[in-house]
Automatic annotation (TrEMBL):
Name of the protein: NAD(P)/FAD-dependent oxidoreductase
Gene3D superfamilies from the UniProt entry: FAD/NAD(P)-binding domain
Family annotation (PANTHER family): FAD_NAD(P)-BINDING DOMAIN-CONTAINING PROTEIN-RELATED, L-ORNITHINE N(5)-MONOOXYGENASE-RELATED
Coiled coil: none
Length: 494
């Protein structure tokens, strides 16, 4: 079957496409561009009314990327107009819109289509996708939903008794005025270190509840001059070279975090960073982590510690209970607040999309994973023929998400094009080969800083690391350069 049409698959006029992509964020846009280039019949189903994914959803103050913008972009769509070394949320969102228009894929995106169920139909050898606005079928499905998808609100005793305003950083209401408010910030991760300093001046009081302090390094951020933007426009190879240098810097970091001497040097720099921002000795002790740098996500900020040292900011240990507008910390300290802002991240180790996918065995992928997701090369799950994921289990490493996504999309495209050429109906994960690969992967993770003992979202509820890739990003790129059909169970069209 080398071509398909957009005609109905059944008498019920269920739209059929060779490939359907779920999500028009960074992953979905990349897949759309590459599918168009390969002349594959496809559509993208997007739940919102515009593209952008996580960069559309997150609008909290000072939201920005912690990977330099020259690397946090597609290698095939470099942007010479970045305003800063680390791009802001609005710039990245604009970049996704510009890229969609530049490559002419807008017509393939169907907006306001929220996926409610994705079910494998064994007889028809295709997936049926139910949405809030129609039913679709496809031979291949690319789940480009990303892990930073559903905000995580922690289970706190008495949370329902709180009478004030509360929201997650990913559902920020720009119209809500925090001026003069007593604010509790729950969590000290990647979003909190950006929005807390941004709101500190306008609030009456901020109380930060943190279970464990993060390692925070200075952010070498600066405005990109007009001169450099002109150079990038006139000589695109200069920006490509800059991108490669940044890539190898991250590879150097990945490799050397295993080196005790190197990690201790970074820790020393991070401790000095605390001392520069915080003069109070007792507060410095609260802010110094007691685990190895890199065990949790490394954060970057130039104003986090300065903000925590202000008179209207208190730092408490983790929250244990809410009694009306009174919040109680694990050490018994308490405060009265008007607003709670949750900077508690997302469901990473238990991807919500798994609840919507029903594979060949009739079980949801979430039930199959049981809180500890696995996939073959982070891209294909067992009992889910012809279904691909982007940024799936065990692919995270210290690099740009764009680098990982481009590698995966290349792999996915090679699978689809080979299936077309070789009359293949289904490509399925071989359980034995997948188990062997993931066993080797987990073994390699044992010697890494990610598995060195701290509590992080890298470690799932079973105690297994279901997030990190233990080797170099270059090895990941090589492994995902093209699909090897001998590693899979193949079923051909009769």
């Amino acid at each position: 079957m080398n071509s398909t049409t957009n005609t109905s698959a059944t008498e019920n006029h269920i739209a059929f496409h060779e490939t359907i992509v779920i999500g028009a964020g960074v992953s979905g846009i990349c897949a759309a561009i590459k599918l168009s280039k390969a002349k594959v019949d496809y559509i993208v189903l997007e739940k919102a009314n515009e593209v952008g994914g996580v960069w559309r959803e997150n609008v909290y103050p000072d939201c920005a990327c912690d990977v330099p913008s020259a690397l946090y972009s597609y290698s095939f769509a470099l942007n010479p107009n970045w305003d800063r070394v680390f791009a802001s949320q609005s710039e990245i969102k604009a970049y996704t819109h510009d890229t969609v228009n530049r490559f002419g894929v807008t017509a393939h995106i169907h907006f306001n289509r929220q996926l409610t169920k994705c079910e494998w139909l064994e007889t028809e050898k295709c997936w049926q996708l139910e949405t809030n606005n129609g039913v679709y079928r496809a031979r291949f499905v690319i789940m480009a939903c990303g892990p930073m998808h559903i905000p995580l609100i922690p289970h706190i005793k008495g949370i329902e008794t709180f009478k004030g305003k509360s929201f997650h950083s990913a559902t920020w209401d720009p119209a809500y005025d925090l001026s003069g408010k007593r604010v509790a910030v729950i969590g000290s991760g990647g979003s909190a270190i950006q929005f807390l300093p941004a709101i500190q001046r306008q609030t009456a009081q901020i109380t930060l509840f943190q279970r464990t302090p993060p390692w925070v390094l200075p952010k070498v951020d600066t405005k990109i001059s007009d001169r450099w933007r002109t150079i990038f426009k006139r000589f695109p190879f200069t920006q490509s070279l800059f991108r490669k240098l940044l890539f190898f810097q991250f590879e150097f970091l990945n490799h050397n975090l295993k080196n005790k001497w190197f990690s201790q040097r970074l820790e020393t720099a991070a401790v000095k960073h605390i001392a520069r921002g915080v003069k109070d000795e007792a507060l410095r002790k609260k802010l110094k982590p007691d685990y190895s740098l890199g065990c949790k996500r490394i954060l970057l900020s130039n104003n986090w510690y300065k903000a925590l040292g202000k008179d209207n900011v208190d730092v408490f240990p983790g929250i244990t209970e809410i009694q009306g507008n009174k919040l109680i910390a694990s050490d018994g300290a308490s405060c009265e607040v008007d607003v709670i802002i949750y900077g508690t991240g997302f469901e990473v180790s238990d991807p919500p999309i798994g609840k919507l996918i029903y594979g060949r065995n009739g079980r949801s992928l979430s039930d199959q994973w049981a809180g500890s997701p696995t996939a073959y090369l982070g891209t294909m799950a067992e009992d889910c023929p012809n279904l691909f994921m982007t940024l799936g289990p065990n692919l995270y490493t210290y690099t740009s998400a764009f680098v990982i996504i481009e590698a995966q999309v290349k792999y996915i495209l090679s699978a689809i094009t080979k299936a077309r050429k070789k009359n293949i109906a289904t490509i399925s994960v071989d359980g034995e080969k997948s188990a062997k690969l993931n066993k080797n992967l987990q073994s390699a993770l044992q010697g890494t800083v990610w598995n060195s003992g701290c509590a992080s979202y890298f470690i799932d509820k079973t105690g297994r690391n279901s997030v990190n890739w233990p080797w170099t990003t270059m090895k990941m790129q090589r492994r995902l350069s093209k699909i090897n059909l001998k590693e899979f169970q193949i079923e051909r069209h009769s």
